[in-house]
Amino acid sequence: MNKQILLLSICILVCSAIQAQVKLGGEIGFHAASVIEKNSLPGWDTSTSKFYGSKSGIHAGIIVEIPLSNRFFLQPGLNYTSKGRQYAKTYDAAGTAATDTVYAKSTLNLGYMEIPFYFTYKIPLTSTHKSHFFLGAGPYFGFILKATQNNQSLVKTSDTSQQYAKGSDDLLVGNAVNKYKTFDYGVNAKAGFELGNVMLSGYFSQGLGNFYTAPYSSTFHHRAIGATLGIWLGRSAAPAVTTIIDTDKDGIPDESDLCPTKPGLKKYNGCPIPDTDNDGIDDEHDSCRTIPGVARYNGCPVPDTDHDGIDDEHDSCKTIPGVARYNGCPIPDRDGDGINDEEDKCPDVKGVAENNGCPPVKKEIRERVRFVARNIEFATKSDGISPSSHAGLNELAALLKKHPELHLTIEGHTDSVGTAEHNLDLSQRRADAVRNYLLGQGIEEKRLTAMGMGMSHPIANNNTEKGKAKNRRVELKLTTQ
Length: 481
Fold this sequence. Notes:
The protein is an alpha+beta fold. The protein folds into 2 domains: 2-235, Beta Barrel (Porin); 363-480, CATH 3.30.1330.60. It has helices at 2-20, 44-48, 363-374, 390-402, 420-440, 465-471, and strands spanning 23-39, 52-53, 55-67, 72-90, 101-124, 131-156, 162-170, 179-180, 183-195, 198-207, 212-213, 218-235, 406-413, 448-452, 473-480. Residues 13-20 have low confidence and may be disordered. Helix 3 (363-374) packs antiparallel against helix 4 (390-402).
């Protein structure tokens, strides 16, 4: 049955060459054949697979070239290809017993008749189109012709003598267990040079079919890597005269034009002058080829002299960094105190940063408020204000009434005794107690802010009683708004 298939394949290839007026050639090559085996056997990857390697092989046969276009060709063929793999293991002779194996070697030899189909693309290397660089790839289909295994071994028969043995076994072919399958398939690829009638190429083949049925769960795929020498035997008829096609009318034939539908220049292989940054200005007239720009600046962006992200054409302060909402100018500072109007709570009166742009609170007022703060006391573990603190708080209320521009932030602080959650709650309640007292004295709610700080801002060492006493405090901070 295999012989009939091979004869039919040869007939089809030869007839195709005659009818299609195409090339017929022969090729021969050498390759390294190996087997990609995957299985679930215990220890295979660590102790067994390393002893398997590639074997040398040959491939030879005929090839037909059928043109599909000026550069694309279908190249079917018929090849004999030898495949398989080699197993070699050398044992430690010094450590072996009297009758142990010194080394064992076996070579799996499988011969196939293969029909490859290459889809090949050729790039001319000369103006006469007699030399090309080519790339090809496609499927192959193979039929097994023979299956043998050569074995060699060297065995110690005693401490002083050894016995060498070799032999060859015919292997079974078919679709049953422990048999090599009749049919195989895969993909081939090649790349090389065509110099007149001579072809030199590198060759790669990868089987996709599982060519052997093992008694355990596994897959076996062929792989071959090598080189091929081919010779065209002649052309059955003179090639037809082809008409030069130039679709974009730029004087460069389509077969040499990398942009056949866009008029271009020869120095750019028929393509237009590049525009790397896609700004509509070609690279030969673009002073900033990698940055999109405008024609009036020779392809560069509109300048930004002060580097504030606002180009000079939209920047009212071109040499001073600013912001877009003020047309590229800095945020105004009407009172000239160095604090911009957006952050200045007194934009028309000079002030200081620590008072949010407002004038500073007089020193004597700040000192008096600090004195009041140092004398605010609470009942132990409570937010109740001691009566001894009322006089100072009454004085503070009078001061706030006299200076309505003043606002007060009340911060409550504790020592480190107790949990952080408890101390934070206690400090907030004490700050609220001071705020509520001042509210009761007629101070507007909007002028008072109470904040519990817990034990997070100590001013003394919490490891001493004196330090803890200092940390249990209320701080009063004045601002003008």
